[in-house]
Input
Amino acid sequence: MVRRTIVFRCLLVACAVLPCVHFLLRRRTHVQADSSQTPWDNLASPSRSLPASFLLGANRSSNLQRVSLVSAAQSYPDVTAVILNWSRLSNVVQIVSLLCGPWLEDVVAEIVVWNNNPREISFQTFAKTGCPSEKLRIYNSPHNAYFQARYVACEQATTRFCFLQDDDYLIMPEIIRTLHARVLGTPDHSIHLLPPHEVLSTQLRTVFTSDGVQTSSAWLGHGTILPRTGAADFLALLHHLNASEDEMKMADNYFTILNNRIPEVWFDQGIELGGGQPFTVGMEGHERNKMHIVMRSNPQMNRDYLSSKLMRQPLLVIQYLRSPCLGACCLLQTNIPLLPTNSKAGSHTADDIFVQELRSIQSLGQDAVDHYLRFPPSQAVDGRPDTAFRSPFPARRGDFISLDMLSRIGSENSIFEITLLVTRETVVILHQALFESSTDAVNWVNSCASVSLASLC
Output
């Protein structure tokens, strides 16, 4: 099936220094009723009006209009959202309210709250969310099933996909819609939202071995979408490997490791809620997780798994940096690196992936790590003019940044203008770049439009 979408791509055809790139999109803001401030108040007005300006209050020609950045509606919802409750019930209520809102009614079919806390909860607990009883299912577990509960709840769902998240993060509806639109095109694997430090860890823990292992670890609690069959297959695999009760409870530590596929991870735009008492706390909790991950990432301890018919065949994938937009349904993708191309991000042995990660960090140096964490690609599409995605290296021929709008926008004869907020040095690069668009991400049409510069300072 051909994906009906619009993808914009900026492809570098000449070399220069690339200090920063920032896609400027209008952000949906939440401000107090008595506040007149906008996110752009601290941004100087341009010396002249930008074409199809995204600046609020800017004068625009009557024949120009801002494109709707909401993905096309689905005919029916096909996602079950699963939330585990332990000690942050007020957060769970807030998350349910968001998931049950009208902005996700064509994506989320059912919400499952799995209560691992001994204190029972009921539908009345969520009365203020306005979520109907036919959409909200509450399960009071007779015992703490820990992380295993996610997969059990997903396996029991009737929908095609499941969305999993912890109770200390708020994931905006447009990001969930972007995850859903993307997984429809790649329905056989999971997609994980992660903060920059976790993306870096996943990248540095990557393992390739001659035994056919190709894997890394990635957490699920920051927001993960996966096929329901993926959860069912994972539970079946744990049983096949005779996993202990303790291992079943710690299932999150094994999900991507045993999938034998480099997980697709996106830099997140999550809002940390905090509160309560997290399950993984202090050195004891981290050491427990490390023990479980190391145990299942070592091929010498998984010979039965490596020869099992249940093992998924390795799938080599090109690792791009990706981030969903905040305030709009779109996905940024780039091949511009944040780590040196000669860095040993990955290993051909699986001795101890945490030792491997530590060695890689030491090899990179603290400055490189700090830059990775300070200028992730998520800051190019977060709607904030004071943050940016910035590469620490000179630009190379073939570097690209693409923006997937996830669905068709405008009409066949529409002319689109995109505003990029960049430094003056980056403008030089943009003058040497190709601007292309595509409806299938395969066949690209070159735009003959020139770059128009407007100073903001």
Q: What stands out?
A: The longest helix spans residues 282-297. Confidence is low (pLDDT under 50) at residues 15-59, 303-317. The radius of gyration is 23 Å. The CA atoms of residues 290 and 354 lie 8 Å apart.
